[in-house]
TrEMBL record, chain A:
Membrane-spanning residues: 26-46, 117-138, 159-177, 189-208, 243-269, 289-308
Protein name: ABC transporter permease
Stretches assigned to the ABC transmembrane type-1 domain: 111-308
Alphabetical keyword list: Cell membrane, Membrane, Transmembrane, Transmembrane helix, Transport
Automatic annotation (TrEMBL), chain B:
Gene3D superfamilies, sorted: Dipeptide-binding Protein, Domain 1 (3.90.76.10), Dipeptide-binding Protein, Domain 3 (3.10.105.10), Periplasmic binding protein-like II (3.40.190.10)
Superkingdom field: Bacteria
Record protein name field: ABC transporter substrate-binding protein
Keyword vocabulary terms for this entry: Signal, Transport
Membrane-crossing residue ranges in chain numbering: none
Pfam family, one: SBP_bac_5
SUPFAM superfamilies: Periplasmic binding protein-like II (SSF53850)
Family stated for the protein in its record: Belongs to the bacterial solute-binding protein 5 family.
PROSITE patterns attached to this UniProt entry: TAT
Signal peptide: 1-24
Length: 323, 514
């Protein structure tokens, strides 16, 4: 029997062990975030001078110095760094140099649009990938499998911006059934969400297929068949549950990718999400906003990974009892 | 190991049931989504980004100006012939060399009903000058303070003579903001819900999504022809053009020639290009290497075939310039002609200067100008000058441009200037006089001419200085003079509108078909 991919996972302990594991993961997460915050602070300062971008090129040196002082960028780097670290626990991330608004306000105003896009993309990805992966696994080696996997491979190898432009040309320009870009009603969500989902469909479907093929070849499935259970019952009741563990890991990582990797999709569809905000902040050398965005993405990855780890205990009873 | 079983009909139905919502979702969403067609008398304009802020004194970039020019007025403005015209000020004069006096238009009110009088205008200018405002507007560098003389008269007091203050206050240096409202809501509140005197009032703003303005029925210049003006930020030109084709926007602004080519020939969509004032040039570091020799600099000017460049790379959407000045700027002298393009002459000049086999150098440009830079590099190569193109992003470029190290952008870089004031002073203020930050040229006569045009109030004296300067620039060639690029728009059939040469999207004069 091939064991489900539990061994790749470090299981949390039962009872107080679970609590200890959670606390340890939270501490690790805080340390990770501290290093991310520090790296973001110093790296963004290596990338250029925001004052030079805010002012036109014909500004005088004195005008530059005045603006630099009023933005607080003339203070010693260490002072700026300590101020920044001191503000983090209270979520005081400073004011955006460009938008002149509190960074937290600017950042969190974009979260709903990003969640909407990433959430829809994930739902679409799962709705397409689960049937596709299952179908391919059940038809392993036959024309259906080859067909589905070829389609999936094409999806995985196609860049998002190209898929996006293609969808726009067909659905918005030729058929005019969906808006080409923008943010508003559910119709605006369709093309960006599908574009963003394409890559994830491929990743999830391929993994589900191989995982399910493994599981369907195991002894307990043979026993189930011997008991007279139909294929559908076997797949849904036994196969899926056992094939789910690696898939959940990947889906968790995909959530992070979808949240942070929507930059191109947001650019193509003029979607007012975090990705686009981050790109603009980097282009503008908007230090506080870049720092906050980097931290936000890092925190999202950390939290999602933590949740994925904890979800194993629900999916696989063996994880709960191991330690 | 058991092989996979054939899929039973029931399983297929179950899996189909799982897949169905995914396939049906787009259709269902379409049914409940908003239609993309235009509604009523609305004009929708797409540009590449949103305004950085809605506080007109905290911005200085084109995207912000494009929006704010529709909600705010300035002391002076430009008429359709690009001449300086009354705005909030009806007339202006210089009672002494260091004072500019503006007589204001009576009866103007802000959108909240507050009076726009001399007190409000003086408050506005003083707010701009206050370092606490952190304004990136730098034109009023010689203005010390603004003083309300009486209810409708404002004086701008300067630390030294500044002949083009009336032109400078046609930009956001001359914007009026409401003092009472600012006191009430503060700067942050003002930037969230701006109140001006302009032809449109603020509606709503969702950053990176949409900014709506409503026509101001009480506007002193008359209510606009339509009811609502919407700005949509679309960073990707292909998407913006697709939105135009699918009737989601009426005007796509700020197109590059190659982006415009994508849409040429589509039904119901037209590419329009109008003369613009953004002027491109190659800055040459005359303080080091082969470029110290004037013959080498002249050779480069002969080698770069600008008409060919305009035709081949810019799709004809630019005009050659003899020196740094666009035709529409005060100071331009039509008697001065561009360099003849002659590769043979360029080679001879290089040989005379001791470079019969040319030389190796670097041409730095922003990534957005990669096509032009590569083409120029190719043209230079014909004369034997092997210029390796180095591309840098905008942030790096800006940092190096005004760096203390004047060679930070290398021996040759592709630069561009937009003289918003329509006065040649703006084109040479930073890069000609030897002590200015971007200057890489030491020439006492040029310094003298710059001083003359910057400090004289008499237009004839200034024109003489500019003419002299253009002759000198052409002769000494501290730059390779290139072209002034057109402003390019894609429009559908609804709007009738023509921009001024400055290219700011002042949309109050547009007409919109229902």
């Amino acid at each position: 029997m091939t064991a489900p991919a539990v061994s790749a996972v470090r299981p949390p302990a039962a009872g107080s062990g679970v609590l200890r594991a959670v606390v340890s993961k939270v501490v690790t997460a805080v340390v990770v975030l501290f290093f991310v915050a520090t790296a973001a602070f110093f790296l963004v300062r290596l990338s250029g001078d925001p004052v030079k971008l805010i002012l036109p090129p014909d500004a005088t040196g004195q005008q530059e110095a005045t603006l630099r002082a009023s933005l607080g960028l003339d203070r010693p780097l260490l002072t700026q760094y300590l101020d920044y670290l001191g503000g983090l626990p209270r979520l005081q991330l400073g004011n955006s140099l460009v938008y002149d608004q509190p960074v937290a306000e600017v950042l969190f105003s974009r979260v709903p649009a990003t969640l909407e896009l990433a959430g829809s993309a994930l739902v679409i990805a799962l709705l397409l990938a689960i049937p596709a992966g299952t179908f391919a696994a059940l038809r392993r080696g036959r024309a259906g499998d080859t067909g589905v996997m070829t389609g999936v491979l094409i999806g995985q190898s196609t860049p998002a911006f190209w898929v996006g432009i293609l969808l726009v040309l067909v659905f918005a320009v030729q058929w005019q059934v969906l808006p080409a870009s923008g943010y508003g009603g559910p119709a605006h969500l369709v093309l960006p969400a599908v574009t963003l989902a394409v890559y994830s469909v491929a990743v999830i479907a391929r993994l589900l297929r191989s995982s399910l093929i493994d599981v369907l070849g195991s002894d307990f499935i043979r026993t189930a068949r011997a008991k007279g259970l139909g294929t559908g019952g076997i797949v849904l009741a036994h196969g899926m549950r056992n094939a789910a563990l690696p898939v959940v890991t990947v889906v968790g990582l995909e959530v992070g990718t979808l949240l942070g990797g929507a930059i191109l999709t947001e650019q193509v569809f003029s979607w007012p999400g975090l990705g686009r905000l981050t790109v603009e902040a980097i282009q503008n050398r908007d230090f506080p906003l870049v720092q906050a965005a980097v931290l936000f993405f890092a925190a999202t990855f950390v939290v999602v990974n933590l949740l994925v780890d904890l979800s194993y205990t629900l999916l696989d009873p063996r994880v709960r009892v191991t330690s | 190991m058991a092989g996979p079983s054939p899929l039973s009909r029931r399983t297929a139905l179950r899996l189909g049931g799982l897949a169905l919502p995914a396939l049906a979702l787009p259709g269902a969403l379409t049914a409940c989504g908003t239609a993309t067609g235009s509604s009523g008398r609305v004009l929708r304009v797409a540009q590449t980004a949103d305004p950085k802020t809605l506080d007109p004194q905290r911005q200085g970039d084109l995207m912000s100006m494009n929006v704010l020019v529709n909600m705010f007025d300035t002391l002076t403005t430009r008429d359709t012939g690009n001449r300086l015209a009354p705005g909030l000020a009806l007339s202006w004069s210089a009672p002494d060399p260091r004072t500019w006096r503006f007589r204001l238009r009576p009866g103007v009110r802000f959108h909240n009903g507050e009076r726009c009088d001399a007190r409000a205008v003086a408050f506005s200018v003083n707010r701009l000058l206050d370092p606490a405002t952190k304004s990136p507007i730098v034109e009023l560098r010689y203005v010390r303070e603004a003083v309300a003389v009486d209810e409708l008269t404002v004086d701008l007091k300067c630390s030294q003579p500044d002949p083009i203050i009336p032109a400078k206050v046609s930009l956001f240096g001359g914007v009026a903001v409401p003092p009472g409202y600012l006191q009430q809501v503060g700067s942050a509140g003002f930037a969230k819900h701006p109140v001006g005197t302009g032809p449109f009032t603020f509606g709503e703003f969702q950053r990176d999504h949409r900014l709506r303005m409503r026509a101001n029925p009480a506007y002193w210049g008359g209510k606009p022809d339509y009811d609502e003006l919407v700005f949509l930020p679309m960073p990707d030109p292909s998407s913006a053009l697709a939105a135009l084709q699918s009737d989601e926007v009426d005007i796509v602004a700020g197109l590059t020639p190659d982006a415009a080519l994508q849409i040429q020939g589509y039904r119901g969509v037209e590419i329009k290009h109008y003369p613009g004032i953004r002027t491109f040039y190659l800055s040459l570091d005359t303080t080091a290497g082969p470029l110290r020799d004037v013959r080498v600099r002249q050779a480069l000017n002969h080698a770069v075939d600008v008409p060919l460049l305009i035709k081949a790379v810019l799709d004809g959407k630019a005009r050659e310039v003899p020196t740094m000045f666009p035709r529409e700027s005060f100071g331009f002298d039509p008697a001065i002609t561009p360099y003849p393009r002659d590769v043979g002459l360029a080679k001879r000049l290089l040989a005379d200067a001791g470079f019969p086999d040319g030389f190796d150098t670097t041409l730095t440009a922003q990534t957005a100008d990669a096509n032009v830079a590569e083409a120029i590099s190719g043209l230079l190569a014909k004369a034997g000058v092997r210029a390796r193109v180095e591309l840098v992003d905008t942030g790096t470029y800006s940092s190096r441009l005004t760096s203390a190290n004047r060679g930070a952008l290398g021996p040759i870089y592709l630069g561009a200037s937009t003289g918003w004031t329509l006065d040649a002073e703006s084109l040479v203020q930073s890069n000609v006089r030897h002590d200015r930050r971007q200057s890489r040229w030491h020439n006492a006569e040029a310094d003298r001419l710059v001083d003359a045009e910057e400090q004289s109030l008499a237009p004839a004296d200034r024109q003489r200085a500019f003419t002299g300067l253009q002759h000198l620039l052409k002769q000494e060639a501290p730059f390779v003079f290139l072209y002034q690029i057109d402003n390019i728009y894609a429009v559908d059939t609804r709007p009738q509108w023509q921009p001024g040469v400055v290219g700011v999207l002042a949309m109050a004069g547009a007409k919109v078909r229902s």
